[in-house]
Amino acid sequence: MNYLRGFIPWIAYGSLSWAVWQWGALAGLLLGCVLLYADRADGLSPSARILDYGSLVFFAGITVLAFLNPDSGLRAYDGALSSGWLALITLGSTVARRPFTLAIARRKAPPEVWGTPVFLRINYVLSAVWGASFALAAAGQVLVTAYGLGLSALIAIHVSVFVIPWRFTADYPERAKARFLKKVGERPYVQEARPA
Length: 196
Description:
Blueprint: H1 2-5, H2 8-16, H3 21-41, H4 50-68, H5 78-95, H6 101-108, H7 117-146, H8 151-183
Helix pairs in contact: 2-3, 3-4, 4-5, 5-7, 7-8
């Protein structure tokens, strides 16, 4: 469930924006501020809050647009815009060598494993899977909207964009650790990462 925590503003926005765009955007912005404040209170460094900051930028912009121009043509593509923005955040965090999943994983993992090669590799893979899912969802949402395939198709895409990577995230870390242990001949999981 930790992985869904950072997406709470996006889920609220997706749930509300189809009916009340402006208020869905404002709800996303306010929830994003609450999560950022909670993370700050928990002592997370700013570099670990990439998803929080990226969310705030999106929701600030979309809130202003939604209230200033509620009939904007972009409203029809708000799902694609939000998925595309999430793809930029998640894939961008991987390229910047700060996978967004690190902040989430560090809440559950002991500090002594944070620098290990397997821990870092798991987080690069997870961030890439989430990013790919968002990118595919953005493309799918553009097609659904352009061809008028309806609300049911958009809802199916919105749900799958979270469920598929969430299920992968639930299973992959344990499989990756097991493969790592088998590969290193049952040496301890905690090993220092060697400098590149």
